[in-house]
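Format notes (please read before filing issues)

Several people have asked whether sequences and structure tokens are stored in separate files. They are not. Every record keeps both together, in the order shown below: the sequence lines, then the token lines. Line labels are part of the format and must not be stripped during preprocessing.
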Amino acid sequence: MTLLEIDPAMRFVGIDPATTTGVVALDIEGNVLVEKLLRGKGRDVPGGITPEQKVSLENQLFQLLQPGDVIVKEGIANRTPKLITTSKIHGALEGMITRKKLSFDEAAPNAVKKFVAVTGWKGQQGSKERLKGTKEKSSYGGCSIEALQLQQSKQ
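Then the structure lines:
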């Protein structure tokens, strides 16, 4: 894609699939247009996602996507603890993007975390502690927006 091919109304959409899926859409200047956490409606089951929740999650994503969106979806990490649930969610959202007649690129999870300077560890070298679960997830919050703003300030 060249600069001449870029439509000023184009949106750049990032999707982080999970039982609570993060979606952000930026305009061509990096301004945040959409910043949503999507969670499928329906009864909760321990360690999984019900068909009702999956369909609800798909429908919520469908409503957010627009023709012409440029989409990057985070891929499935190696050694994902809940691989079956994760695969169901990723497959459902990929199908929804395709049904919307859009395409997507996939970013490796380690590359995403490296770009936003998140390691999953806290503390000083020699006494670092591994972050897990919600502590690890919360350490990512806002990092991509901060990285984009930092990148823009260098231009």
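For reference, the curators noted about this record: Helices lie at 51-64, 83-99, 109-115, 133-140, 143-153. Confidence is low (pLDDT under 50) at residues 142-152.
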